[in-house]
Amino acid sequence: MARFVFVLLFLMSANQIFAQNSNPTQFANYITETDLHRHLAVLTSDSLEGRETGSDGLKKASNYIIHQLNEMGAKPVGDNGFFQTIEFVKQEWDTIRLKSDNSSFRHLMEYYAIPGNNPKVTISAEEIYFGGYGIDNEVYSDYKKHDFSGKVLLVFADEPRLDDTLFLFSGKNKPAPFSSIDAKLKAAASHGVKTLLIIDPNFLVNTNELRKTIFSNRLSLPSDDFKTTNILPHLFLSTESVKKLVGNHLDSIIARREMIQQERKYNDYQMPMNLFIKMVPKVTRTVAGNVVGMIEGSDKILKSEIVVASAHYDHLGKRGDSDIFHGADDDGSGSVSVLEIMESMSKAKKAGVGPKRSVVGIWFCGEEKGLLGSRYYVNHPLVSLEKTIADVNIDMVGRIDSQHLDKKEYVYSIGSGKISKDLYDLNEAVNTKYSNLTLDYTYDDEKDPNRFYYRSDHYNFAEKGIPIVFFFNGVHPDYHRVTDTIEKIDFPVLTKRAKHAFYLIWEIANKLDRLK
């Protein structure tokens, strides 16, 4: 018995010594070139067909990541195991036409309409009515003493102005909420308007953005009240197309707009014409999602706070029968880095010396569609954003850009000091102590035309006031090309960068105080 007690005490003492002497290096060393290559070979395989959001290939990628999380013993955080389900919307036009008398109008050149916000309709009318600004509020109403039930109504966007910078009703440089497009549509619907034609002063900017959505594979997130039924038909027109539409009536419309400006009222005005509108929207929905797993913290109190390690696991998919955009660097490199970071945190936890705070790995979908997966997450967080103390985002860390060919051991560090100087200082200290990379802050310059700070998933956390850092290798000739393949990845440099992110997350998770 005495010998047993001695052995037991020896083992307990050894375990305590191990815990006291443990340091993150032994766990960072679990991040290896071999494991990074093994994971990346799966994510960039032909069978995944470029991992486009909504595709079977992305589903295979999520299944692989989930399998790895299960194997390491991570805790599922999603609404369906490790999966956070997101329903995306793709909006297209099957048919869109606008004609008046003998004139035809070109969509996205002279007018535009958003497919997801319009019902399927065919409208014929013999006149258009001028409806001021389409506002209906106790402060001012364009519907007072006017009956527009069953009519096609032409209105100005926004609200009247006091001068070039201030709006009349809000008194500010932006219009009042009751002058928004949504408010105008609700007002028109409540007064029985058949169709709303809106004169858009920002027509060129808005059509340029809409072209990206309609003529590409971009998806969007439906708003919580997104529906394609019971929506009032509405179109947006440029100033030039309004002149073409109303012809000689333009002076009368301008006179009534000035009357609203001066007297806050206007007289009825009807414009006879043969108007034809046909809209057949094609709105399809597809399900994809973020993958979210947690290595729970060791401290009973601090484990309720989390540090996020993030990357996006989607890419551009496949074009035609053979052109696969493998996305080895973008962002296969970040995705496998986060996998290895989570594996190393798991090994530390199993050794009894895991980080005090919890570490949450998130693999976002929809980044290539406009940072959609991360935007959805911050608006539907699986862990309270108040408990989220930082996001370390890793997007493209496997290559060398042309500025660093003679000194490969670098990484661009973006945004670390924009919200928290603590994070900037800690990043520097970690690099000095462990990583010895060159931290390049070139892209932190607000004047830099690339604006990378706004172009990856960390930005949605930053908008919520959460400290972030974005690690990046810079662009290269294979960016968004089918040639972004695994054999071009520099695995020794990728390993050093992944280890640096691990060390930083480790230090954030073990700080006594939150980042200020």
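Above is the first protein from milestone M3; the second protein from the same milestone is given next.
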Amino acid sequence: MFLKPPPGVINATSAPISRQGTALIALALLAPFLLYLGTVRSIVSVWNSSETFAHGYVILPISLWLIWRRRENFSLYPPKPWPPALLLLAMLGAGWLAAQLGEVQVVSQYTFVAMLPVAALALFGPRLAGSLTFPLLFLLFAVPFGEIFVGPLIQFTADFTVWAVRATGIPVLRSGTRFELPTGNWSVVEACSGVRYLISSITLGCLYAYLTYRSTARRALFIGLSVIVPIIANGLRAYMIVMIGHLSGMELATGVDHIIYGWLFFGLVMFVMFWIGSYWREDTDPAPASASATASAATAPRAAGTPPRLPAMVIGVLAVCAFWPALALMGERVNHNPAPVRLADIAVTAPPAADFADWKPFYMEPDARFHRAYQAGGLPVSLTVLYYRNQNPGKNLISSMNRLSGYEDAWHEVEGASRLETVAGTPVTLHEGILRTPQGAIMVWAFKWVGGHYTGSDYVGKLWQAANKAMMRGDDGAAVMLAVPYDNDKERARAALHRFLAEQGPALDQALNATRTHK
């Protein structure tokens, strides 16, 4: 969809862009890829490592194709540089820098990609850039985002599947995202979450709605369906796979074949959705060719030229884009701590005890690890500390990949809640999780220490990390977890954990701060 030009202004007052002007625009739009090369590499790395985001490779070509379809707009609305867009570009740069300081990779990626349409706005002006809104914003689909939805989607799929199987009349014994039928055991893991179907559906749905409809209401309705339909369809897919396995005596749909069934089913669902959607299609706006021809015939074509203020705007875009990576480079050099991590001994006064579980948190490998079990009243309590320094995307304290248990681990979290406790005199809302295996269960209290501050929130932790790096104090942080055997008596388990935290919290705090100041 593009804006219709005012009468009498088509081609009569516009001139084609000269090669010099085209080169300047190309320079301004390509330079961010070099200035933010690290962020570009992080995006491509995810495309390469995850089939869920492999579609990222085609986003830029599709966006360029959509712009090419509207190439007449460059004659209808000649570029008119718009200086206020530089302020938006600076805000995105500041957001990128904050995300770099806090090691929030997805925000770094989104702010970088968003710079491209904003740079186009600065170079083209509101009219031309506005006529290309969707092709420019479609670039945001190149960012590999969606891992945060894996957990909720796994939970929904498990709920839906168990409900559907029980509605069929088959008894089900459930424990978290794992359940048992008379014919065998099933587990809803990351590959079963349907996140790849959801992301693919939303991307295709937005593109289909843009190409097929003109009205905002129809586009919004179809995009809404592209969100809801794959979630429901994935629940049906999981139910059908369980039923195929159950009815075949666990001989079918229990291996890689159930992934194949899933993609075939998803393809069928999307085909039906697009087919139904085609009945309400609206033809795209016809290009005003006749008006253009009339105006061109009445007015002699003008010589190609460079839009006024374009060279100055190109310099401004390059300067704004280059400023933030330069700041980030200086900050990295100052915050980098070359000293190896030597986790100070935690002077726990409680007597040692035998370890009672083989559980290990599913976290990125830390720089240092501490794990011991102690006796706290009538129950043993284990203390686990994972310490991180000079963090990067492959070694990060706070990440969507870090969990109390992996989706395919023997231990799995069946219950989680928030709880207010006190750590070394500081109130902290920590996470309380119940983890189970067929052999037993444990209760875990988990929180984080970030540069001298305690928190149970990942978002607050990232803010503290960014603030510490902005003040050139480094990025040291640690995950702290207390675990206790759990026999369905929550108050007894909580009492043991509370007592241990109250008595040993000061020793833990002293050890963490001593490790941070070690050079």
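Note on the second protein: Residues 295 and 414 are 70 Å apart (CA to CA).
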